[in-house]
Write a structure and sequence with these properties.
Blueprint lengths: L3 H4 L3 H12 L1 H4 L5 H10 L4 H9 L6 H10 L3 E4 L2 E5 L13 E3 L3 H13 L8 H11 L5 H10 L2 H6 L22 E7 L12 E7 L5 E6 L4 H15 L4 E4 L4 H4 L1 H9 L3 E4 L9 H19 L4 H13 L10 H6 L9 H4 L5 H5 L1
Parallel strand pairs: 4-7, 7-8
Antiparallel strand pairs: 1-2, 2-3, 4-5, 5-6
Helix pairs in contact: 4-5, 7-9, 8-9, 14-15
Protein name: Integrase catalytic domain-containing protein
GO biological process, one term: DNA integration
GO molecular function, one term: nucleic acid binding
């Protein structure tokens, strides 16, 4: 007899349980339209705006009533949910995408925790978390509250690294004019602890145009394994023009890796000898990987399972020099975050009534 409960509920179920744990923080909170609407009505700061927009009621205080009337054009009520416009009045369009749900004070800390502490948030920095939240939600003193939360995050304080000035020498590479033309590739590790499946390294690659990071957990940094990663990169992103590596690592100067590059018609360039810092983009991604992994490893979590979430967080971080995140440059839009899905279906038709 084939026992489903004992024969099937093994590795796949263990994997599923770990994936469920990753998003458990989102599932534990009730962020339905109804619950948020009720909290908005009870909020000490925004409840009076809801009363005014819904019933035309003004505060008894003349000063408060005047202040509310001056600020009310920036808000609107849609299906009983209170929204704020993130677009200046002169540029405002009657489009629901220009409006964000207003968060009452009692849920602000929970939302910041979801965007910062969760595996998809990756314990990102202050500006990264501000960029994520301000696009989706509105609440008073948003930047200050996010900054205070992250500065008091125990995991972030433990993982802080002393930054060393590593000014790289000038090395000229051809400037790509579109994504996935030129990549840098390197090996990160060994990582302690080794993952349950025996992986202790991460093969990382970064696109020099968009700064998009690709990474794959690997057991050993040998030429066969790394060549396989290169082939899977091509399967995902297409054949690129150039790949840049150092020439100190045997896996990149081997005949096998060179042959794979030749067969795929990829130009393989090397950094100068004793100049590993010339792989600056990869080095920076390694530092970020270490920073993002540390809090979860300290909590006893499997870093390999969290790697895709950490990559999502890194690729969703706005690059200071480009002004956009790698995800935006590659896909032409910002990604949706799990929490925003609670409102999408309930209010998707509201924009038609605004036009």
């Amino acid at each position: 007899m084939f026992n489903l409960t004992t024969d099937v509920n093994t590795y796949q179920d263990n994997q599923m349980r770990r994936q469920v744990e990753m998003i458990d923080l989102f599932e534990r909170s009730d962020f339905s339209v109804e619950s948020l609407s009720n909290l908005q009505q009870k909020d000490s700061e925004y409840g009076k705006f809801v009363s005014y927009l819904d019933k035309g009621e003004l505060p008894k205080s003349q000063k408060e009533a005047r202040k509310l009337l001056l600020q009310s054009p920036d808000f609107m009520l849609i299906n009983g949910l209170f929204f704020h416009s993130r677009i200046a009045k002169s540029k405002r369009a009657k489009n629901l995408k220009n409006y964000q749900p207003v968060l009452p004070a009692v849920v602000v800390k929970t939302v910041i925790s979801m965007y910062h502490d969760s595996s998809l948030g990756g314990h990102g920095g202050i500006q990264h978390t501000i960029d994520l939240i301000k696009e989706k939600y509105f609440f008073s003193k948003l930047a200050q509250k996010i900054s205070d939360y992250i500065k008091s995050c125990p995991a972030c304080q433990r993982r802080k690294l002393t930054k060393i000035n590593t000014k790289a020498g000038i090395v000229a590479y051809r400037t790509p004019d579109s994504p996935f033309q030129v990549w840098q590739i390197d090996i990160f590790g060994p990582i302690n602890p080794i993952s349950p499946t025996g992986n202790q390294y991460v093969c990382t690659a970064i696109d020099l145009f968009s700064k998009f990071v690709f990474a794959e957990a690997i057991p050993t940094a040998d030429t066969i394994t790394v060549s396989g990663v290169l082939f899977r990169m091509v399967s995902q992103f297409g054949v690129f023009d150039t790949i840049i590596s150092d020439q100190a690592s045997s896996e990149f100067i081997s005949k096998c890796f060179k042959e794979v590059c030749r067969l795929l018609d990829i130009n393989h360039e090397y950094t100068p000898s004793f100049a590993h810092h010339c792989l600056g983009a990869c080095e920076r991604s390694h530092r970020t990987l270490a920073e993002r992994m540390t809090p979860y490893i300290a909590d006893g979590k499997n870093w390999q399972d969290l790697l895709p979430c950490i990559l999502f967080s890194m690729n969703n971080t706005v690059n200071a020099s480009l002004g956009y995140s790698p995800f935006e440059i590659v896909y032409g839009r910002r990604p949706n975050f799990p929490l925003t899905g609670h409102f999408r279906q309930d209010i998707k038709h509201a924009s038609k009534r605004l036009s």
